[in-house]
Amino acid sequence: MSVPHPVVLLVEDEPAQREVLAYNLEAEGFDVVSADNGEDALLLFDEEGPDVVVLDWMMPQLSGIEVCRRLKSRPESRGVPIIMLSARSEEVDRVRGLETGADDYVIKPYSVRELMARVRTQLRRTRAAAVGERLEVGDITLDAATHKVFRAGEELKLGPTEFRLLATLMEKPGRVLSRAQLLDLVWGRDVYVDTRTVDVHVGRLRKALCVHGGDDPVRTVRGAGYALG
To answer: Residue 3 pLDDT more than 60?
Structure first.
């Protein structure tokens, strides 16, 4: 199995536009969850843990600007890239969007192809392995394109689940991920796996990482989960 598909939260109140964007995002290999208002967007964010948010500015109930402000004010969601979509083309509006915390600002009407490229650009910051990038944390190197892992220059033999687990931890070095989060990111949202399975595979990953010596780089945070480094 390969690294799970990145998840995009698409927030757009115009049905036709939402349908076109969802179709193109899925064609690019993304898993898409969508909302047509800001309140639902915040609930979906907490339920799905997306890798990127594509967010319309003008929406009923809660504006995109307010959704962006709330997400960027919370530690658990601050690092997730947000691409703001808006018909507002004045410099003052772009500045307001970016100052609120948006990582990119796209003016309507826009090229769908350009938007897909911008989504991939933002994704490289948080899910590098999912787009075939090379990851390096300390003396550990993971090459997603060749599916190889090295530590201090020595190649390691990892099973497919341990590879995905390591990639997920390396994409967020230092960040503590709960067992539930790891289940979603590594095994997928539609697969039922007991949380104790995470502990088993973390144990296998630790053994593989230390086969040639060196300290255990995987940190256990009691009651919270695991982190790399």
So the answer is: no
**Are residues 80 and 138 located together in one domain of the fold?**
no
Buried b (16+ CB within 10 A) or exposed e, 19-34: eebbebbeebebbbbb
If you ran DSSP here, which 8-state letter would residue 140 be given?
Answer: E
User: Amino acid identity, residue 190?
Assistant: D
Question: Look-up: residue for tokens 């787009």?
Answer: 131
| 195/148 same-domain check | yes
Rg (CA), the chain: 19
- Among residues 42, 41, 38, 43, the alpha carbon closest in space to that of 63 is found at 38
Q: Any idea which residue has 């949202």 for tokens?
A: 189
* Domain boundaries, position 219: 131-228
Is 0.70 topped by the overall pTM?
no
